[in-house]
Protein: Leucine-rich repeat-containing protein 42
Organism: Frankliniella fusca
Amino acid sequence: STWRELFASEEENEANIFYEQLLLKSSLRGTLEDRLQFKAAELLHELYEYTTQTTIDSVIKGVDCLSEIDLDILQSKFCQAARKSNSNSLSLDEISKTINGLRHSSLFEGLQNRKLFDKYLEKKKWLVPPKQIALSNREVLRKDNTVQKIPLEFGYVVGFLPMIEKLLNLPEVLHCIDNPKPSEDGSFASPLDGYYYKNHPVVQKHQGPILAFGTYVDDARLPDTASSKPLNGRFFYWNLLNIYPELRSSTRAIHLLFCAQAEHIKAYGFDKFLEDYREGIQRLSSEEGVTFRVMGKNRTFHGIHLYSSGDNPASANLAGFKESHFAELMCRQRMGTKPEVYLFLMENDFPLRSKESHIEHLKEIEAYQKLPPSEQKQSKNPSVSSGVNSKSLFLEINGCDVTKQFPQDLMHDVIHGTLKLEIVSLPNHVINEKKSIDLETVNNRIKKFSKYFGVNKPSAIEHVHIKNQNLRLSAAETLALANMLPFVLLETDDLSVGLKSVCDKENLNCYILRLNLLNLQMSTKFTIQDVENLRKMTRNHHKLFLKCYPGSEIPKLHFEIHLPTQVLLFGPLRQHWCFRFEGKHAEFKRVWKICHNSINVYHTLSSRHQTKQAAEMMISIDGDKGPYLKTANSRGVPKNKKCGDIIKEHQELLLEVFKLPSNPPCFDQYEYIIFNGVHYAERDAFVLDFVNCVPIIGEIIKIFGHQESIAFIYAKLVAEEYEHKLNAFKVKQTGELGVALTSSIVHHQNVPYIKSINAQFVLITCNSFLSVFLQ
């Protein structure tokens, strides 16, 4: 509204005079609207120097909303003043007085700085501020001759139980806890389906939902532009495993327990930082449980620690085992020497570690450490023969077994380990040994085929990468390269001419078996039969790999044989891998780049994280942006399409799938959508279902929406045959159309769709065609 419109109730000449007086006060020639636009441009100019367009869009939207509310307040003030006036009208002096009374107030009153903002969040009862934990102190003499201890080395811990209470007051979280997904016997779709949760004494004893927690520890490098040496921070996270998997995949579902300098934790250990977590789990797993204030009522919950994820050095250190893979006994689950782990390829070939045997090993180490130095030199250190270093704080947690609850990680051990090793070994075989293809051709084909494998395009392979057996790729880039490599290593890149590989048959069979093994490992759901098949496939692959590439053994080949047991204990491997936790690191790195506060790094990082999380929780309850945790679903900008403008054949399919009358007014048409974290667009392929392990495939023609439902109009593709050498299905168009709701699609994964003249191929990832390979 213009000032003229605001004062339309006054006499026209008086309003015009007042409006002209305001213009005279402006230091800018032109109208007040021009002045406002200028100041807005000035502010945006400053913001552009420090932040992204996404943030600026949020600022613009937020300030516009605040301005509307401010005008409502102004209108309310006018009305109140008018009611007090006998004439039921206001003079210009009264208007000026009212406006001047508001002139020096801020739209952001009480929120002008971070300290005030945190006080606001504490008043709203959402903020759990981090607390400093001192590891060492230095003494300082004060002016009054008293000695004061100043923390010298320290970190920050976020209260575990207070954070749980905030989480329980989110409706979507409480719904997940009170309405767990049904569990089928012999089926593993979540960590709560695993035998460790089901057979835990606390779960067996107490009725109702039992809270289950998973943790993750890892280091994150914080680059320092003022120094050549980056800061190495150690971050410890936890998440609530009762939350549905589609919601738990969000980094918002990951909570900070502590952060500190990695060197300090190496020097002083984890115990001081983990004490709060240990005490919280002990209280949750006790007979009484813990009573929280949830939705205005007191509710008592019980809970358990289920597992701790991480890379091998971090998990071994946290569990009290030797960190290095050079140790004589390097495995946390089984006791096998270095030569033995490469000779035997079945888990049962090695003695099983147990909590009881672990405690005996700790007693032996403790007895050895009590010996005089002279006797220690004459005796063998029992830690060498057992692979145990020290007692873990996790042993003090009810029902915790460090030989079981520190599983191997699919990302670190397979994707960054055995898969990368095989990706390097196969090009080495064809480039350096057979010399059937050169590296330049390989890299050109990688560049060509990358467009079919999503946004994570792998970089070129160099000779030094092959020589050192070390690819400089992220996990997502490694997966893309792994699936495209069979196409890259064909004799010709023209898929319509022939599909002869440059690899030897045995080497290629080994690699395709690796891809199929990977697809099974990354499945979202397992049965008992799947687990047994996983054991057989792991053994068969490792046996063939060691035959094809003798001398290429790495410890992660042994760690991989434990993955089938982990499925039985903790559910699908992808639900306790480290991908999302690594994504959480990115948030802290981004804050570090913005703040770059070197005085107290971990206070800045932890306090900003807690402020951000508290604000997001508060907004989800009191605002209009939806729940704190939500599925990764979104849609592009819709185009309103009248029903009459849609092709008749498409109309009939849409009316059928949406169950609508004959002449609905219109539909929304989208160029793309994101559903269950998967990006779908026109001309993409998708898998509707499986029949006897054969996929039912479609190519998206159009995407339409009606109310909350989304449907694909798709061209039906038929799988002509399975091309083993490519680990892909050769498909062709049938000329028929179909329609499917996104909610009816059973396989939500990215489906690479390679199109060539007279040859089209579809790759199905994260699912295994066991009937093909295990006959």
Observations:
- The CA atoms of residues 63 and 107 lie 9 Å apart.
- The first helix runs from residue 3 to 6.
- Residues 410-575 form one domain.
